[in-house]
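Entry 14. Structure prediction run on the chain below.
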Amino acid sequence: MRAAVLEKFDRPLTEQDIDLSDVGPDEVLVRVVASGICHSDRSAHVGAQDRPLPLILGHEAAGVVLRAGADVRSVQPGDHVVGSASAHCGICAYCLRGLTQHCVDKGIARVGGPPRLSRAGQEIHAFVGLGGFATHLLVSERAVVRLPAEMPLDKAALLGCAVLTGVGAVRNRARVAAGETVAVIGCGGVGLNAVQAARLVGASRVIAVDLNPAKLERARQFGATDVVDASQSDPVDAVLALTGGGVDHAFEIVGHGSTVEQALAMTGVRGTTTVVGVARADDLARLSPLVFMATEKRVQGSRMGSGNFRLDVPLYCAMYMRGQLKLDELISEVIDLSEVNRGLTELDGSDGARSVIRFD
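Output returned:
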């Protein structure tokens, strides 16, 4: 197969031929049709996360099953599927409690035997067990979910992370109720989905906060009732003024300690801050214990949408096909694998939309 491989952090990916192992009994081989480029890929690219190298980035991938192992039951050759970093075993303590996003046995790598991916005998690692910047995926059956054949695969790819994470944070973790007020800090792909989820559940006010005016304009298209340009004014003061005391829910999507502090300050009495952004391990937020006691505010995290991707992805697919969920508007550019390095670096100043790699 052909793949874009990261050999050293913060260096360009190189397109290479990678060897695929035989399909294991519980594995599937997928021909990738489309793969989104996400900020999490960029974060791993620059070394913000401790990942083994060489590494194939990419985790928003959709395609067609070519082969399925003898023990695979959920998909068969010819099925259209989406990959997810929320693979789960179904039998560990977290899975049995319904917390599949915390599964301790996600099947990211094989236990024993040859590696799934290699080059001249050296193992090539797949980011979060997927490695979507490649013509093929060889993954555990647990990492894919089947979709209707009529679902466009370039749109479906985004369901695996941007939509799953952003919509899920609002719907599954924060459980925003109709009539409540919401602020979203960071209006990239995940943030835009948090904005549209807040609209879909009936939030009375959805305030988008970002430093980039183009992202804020796009957030309006996704349902933001108000926008705050954090490059021009203090975002906390602006949100407090708009709401007369703070929002019921603030979503931090950026992954910085400073914006977590802002999110907490934006919430009113008994407000909830949900941290969605992936921060560096050494980044910290300063939060006052007095504030928690006096205002009864709450801070919580949300990982991969805090739900079960095999239930949520088909639901979001159906919502898209009914015209309820915006996916077309998330894609700003369709590119070739050879353009992946440009796609990654342009995330640093993007307008919030997604570049999608097409494999035809």
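The two ends are 13 Å apart (CA to CA).
Filed with the rest of this week's runs.
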